[in-house]
Design a protein that fits this description.
With 220 residues, this protein is of the alpha+beta class. Helix content is 45%, strand content 30%. It contains three helices and nine strands; from the N terminus they run αβββββββββαα. Strands 1, 3, 4, 7 and 9 form a five-stranded antiparallel sheet that branches. A four-stranded antiparallel sheet has the order 2-8-5-6.
Length: 220
Amino acid sequence: MMINIKFVIQTGLGILFLIHISNCLYFHIGETERKCFIEEVPDDTLVVGNYKCQLFDPRTGGFMPSSPGIGMHVEVHDPDDKIILSKVYSSEGRFSFTSHVPGEHVICLYSNSSRWFAGSQLRVHLDIQVGEHAIDYANVAQKEKLTELQLRVRQLIDQVEQITKEQNYQRYREERFRQTSESTNSRVLWWSLGQTFILAVMGIWQMRHLKGFFEAKKLV
């Protein structure tokens, strides 16, 4: 029984590792370019982003470590379009925020200045981690002096809490979708009734107009 539990834990950690890798990406930005990403986040969830900038070298055609003077401006908007994070960081760093409203959070990055790389490009490596993936468990174990078993139990508890948040978020999305569908159906119904009423009024008006025309011409 202990072997099965160990296998499940190792499999779960392996899946988490693969998910962690899949969240890594890089992109290129110009002097005045702004890159934004949408991340769907449940409420009360920690989001951590790790990034590193590289400057394009026209002599070698590759990318080299950027100058310390190059910084990255990070701006985060919540689903209500409120700014919950707006800060300038160095060329390599880490930003974090905690969501207070469930939904799509927009994470935007752009260079704090254009004079440092004069028409060149920056390559930005970005890794966004959400929920328990954003927790540094090695640091937690060191601070709280947890054993390996206690640390794994802590990870499983955090995963269960995150799954609960995800389920609540899916219910929230389902409710929003249902409300949107009901509102759309209601509008379609009222639009159809309005069209029917207008057609009926136009039909009555045409019949009366034709009747008056025929009477004036003494055709009836």
